[in-house]
Amino acid sequence: MSDPFTLATVSATVLPQLVKFVFEQAGKVMDKHRSPAKAETAPTTGDQQSSALAELEQSARVLRKYTVDGAQPHTTDQELLNALGSAWRRIESLTGQPLDVAAALKQRGVHLEFTNDDIDGTVTAIKATAITGKANVSIRFNDNVVRAGGEYTAIEIDGPIG
């Protein structure tokens, strides 16, 4: 099982996406392990697996407050961080695979790379009216010269993102 990155280092911007992703994965794992098809194919469910599922369910109840019920996640909320870490570990132990959180967060957001040698016109990387709590925006801009009269705008909030 891989050790998740330190939850204390999670930014307030990324935390909502992380909570939602882990909550969704928890639901998928619980559905899979408790489905009638799984019960028919598995001769017995071990005590260890039953315990892991019960712990995952308990953690998912806490995460539900932030994904469904509308509570705002905070990086200082110890109950949330504990539930997030516990759900993460239980998902990995029940699936036997590490969660690819980096890929999941990238899918939920916007990633833009722009390279140009010269700008003498107008370049806008992203236009949005709003960025919701679901968005993860990352921009990398490489440019050697922005000439007089040229303009580069990394983000112009003129249409929703997220």
Condensed summary:
This protein is α/β, with parallel strands linked by helices. It contains five helices and six strands; from the N terminus they run αααααββββββ.
Topology overview:
Layout: H1 15-34, H2 36-41, H3 47-67, H4 78-95, H5 101-107, E1 110-119, E2 122-127, E3 130-131, E4 137-146, E5 151-156, E6 160-161
Parallel strand pairs: 1-4, 2-5, 3-6
Order of helices and strands: HHHHHEEEEEE
Structural class: alpha/beta
pLDDT < 50 runs, ≥5 residues: 1-6, 39-44
DSSP helical segment count: 5
Counted beta strands: 6
Q: What global shape is seen?
A: elongated
What separation lies between the terminal Cα atoms? 31 Å
Q: Describe the biggest sheet?
A: 2 strands, parallel
Word description of this protein:
It contains five helices and six strands. The protein has a two-stranded parallel sheet with strand order 1-4. A two-stranded parallel sheet has the order 2-5. The chain has a two-stranded parallel ribbon with strand order 3-6. Helix 1 packs across helix 3 (47-67), helix 1 (15-34) packs across helix 4 (78-95) and helix 3 packs across helix 4. It is 44% helix and 22% strand. With 162 residues, it is of the alpha/beta class.
How would you describe this structure in keywords?
two-stranded parallel ribbon; alpha/beta; 162 residues
